[in-house]
Amino acid sequence: MDPEYFQSHNMSWGTLGTVRPFPNFHPEQDAREIRTALQNKDAVTVVRILTNRTNAQRQVIAQTFEEMTQKDLAVGVKKAMSGELEILLLELLMPPVQYEAFRLQQAMVGLGTDEETLLEILCTRSGEKLREISAMYKLLFKKDLEKELRGETSGDFSNLVLALLNKDNFAVGVQKDIESLSASLNGKKADAALWINILTSRDSDHLNKVLDGLELQRGQTVDQTLDKKFTGDVRQGLKVLVQCIQNPGVYLAKRLVKAKTPILQGITVSHAEEDLLCIRAAFLKLTGTSLYTALQKQYKGDHLQALLALCRSED
């Protein structure tokens, strides 16, 4: 294993991310090595460098590369690499907010909408971060994200998605929210608007207390309650939101269990510097197999090595 791997890996202890700032960072040296590697179509070197640097460090490398060569690094990667590895390396080169905007656009482009990916991003990102993503979306695609989401969804599910995009925190009593949600369940059909309003306008600590109190009062899990009282897309949306409130790492691990490559890469790239260690731990508990081992069963070659480097190690 490359010594750089261990230097970077050691930096990850005590954090929730797997990719940490690379010590003794020398962007000029990295840019030179990548330039030579791209000329020789040497994927190993490109993977070694880009997966052992944080996104902020990658941005410095890309800028240095452009100053050195008068060429765009992403364009160089496109010319020298191919297939799933090329896509992964290009994703690593996108700034985080740009990448999330890109994922949202990809979830809505073409026939059909990937509702689960929309929910994943909207449910796991803060209101402040989503405002940044919305601004980036408009800059990149010249379209308003809220209007795009409204056009791709309908009914209560649309109301949920738009509320998530504009989520904010308001201080309200926990017991009041418990009583309000409980009362909404007494009829044949629950009031989706009330659930959407409460679950998208409180902080996670408050909502966990509300959900715990509701479960005690009703004698069943919130998931069971949602299954009985809601139907269709809004039921799925509320269930995802509740999972993300209770434990986003578990929700994302569940997404990874049978994930196709775009979803797996989306989660891995998005969360490598944030909470991938939590997702790994949840994945191991869910499946009895480490994510590191699962990747080896599904992928191969340089693409596998890049994914393993982001995952970092066996649990």
TrEMBL record:
Belongs to the annexin family. It comes from the Eukaryota. This is Annexin A14. The keyword Repeat applies. The keyword Repeat applies. It holds the Pfam family Annexin. Keywords: Annexin, Repeat. GO terms for cellular component: cytoplasm; nucleus; plasma membrane; vesicle membrane. InterPro entries: Annexin, Annexin_repeat, Annexin_sf. Gene3D superfamilies: Annexin (1.10.220.10). One of its GO terms (molecular function) is phosphatidylserine binding.
